[in-house]
Recover the amino acids of this structure.
C-alpha cells in the first residue's frame, strides 16, 4: 500500500486480500473521521495475460468500484499494460506546453544561449522527466525523449 496526502494506492494479489485491506483502510480512516468516496475510488486489474486485464468493475465489501485501464497517481500515468510509452507522450506534451508558456523568454534576444539552456534545465526538463528514474524505457521511448530534447535545443540555438 502506498499513500501520500489524500491518495492511497492499495495493491493485492487477490480480491479477498483486497477486501481485507479495504476493511482495514476503512476502519482506520473512520477512526480519524475520514470516509472512502466510492465515486473517486477506481479498480484496476493487472495481469501478464491480456485477456485477464479486464476493465470490469469490482465489488468489494458491498460497494462496486469502477474498473479502469489507466489512472493518474501522484502525477504519473499508471496503466494495466505496464507500458511507459503513454506516460512519455503525456510528459512530452506537458513539456511542449511549458515551452510555449515561456516562449517569450526563449525567443528573447536579451538572454544569452547559456541562460536559455539553464531555463530549459530548470523549467522544461523537470516537467518532462519527473519520476523518470522509475521508468523502464524501450529504445523507442528513449529516442522519443531525445527527439524532444533536440527540438528544444534547436529552438534555443536558432535565435
Amino acid at each position: 500500500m502506498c499513500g501520500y496526502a489524500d491518495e492511497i494506492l492499495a495493491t493485492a494479489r487477490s480480491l479477498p486480500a483486497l477486501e481485507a485491506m479495504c476493511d482495514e483502510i476503512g476502519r482506520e480512516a473512520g477512526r480519524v473521521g475520514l470516509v472512502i468516496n466510492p465515486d473517486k475510488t477506481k479498480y484496476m486489474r493487472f495481469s501478464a495475460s491480456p485477456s485477464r486485464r479486464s476493465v470490469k468493475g469490482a465489488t468489494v465489501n458491498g460497494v462496486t468500484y469502477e474498473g479502469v485501464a489507466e489512472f493518474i497517481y501522484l502525477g504519473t500515468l499508471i496503466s494495466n499494460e505496464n507500458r511507459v510509452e503513454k506516460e512519455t507522450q503525456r510528459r512530452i506534451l506537458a513539456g511542449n506546453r511549458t515551452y510555449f508558456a515561456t516562449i517569450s523568454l526563449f525567443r528573447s534576444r536579451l538572454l544569452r544561449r547559456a541562460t536559455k539552456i539553464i531555463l530549459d534545465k530548470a523549467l522544461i526538463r523537470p516537467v518532462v522527466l519527473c519520476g523518470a528514474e522509475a521508468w523502464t524505457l524501450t529504445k523507442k521511448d528513449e529516442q522519443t525523449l531525445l527527439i524532444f530534447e533536440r527540438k528544444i535545443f534547436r529552438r534555443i540555438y536558432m535565435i
Summary: Helices lie at 15-31, 85-101, 103-107, 113-129, 139-158. The CA atoms of residues 10 and 108 lie 48 Å apart.
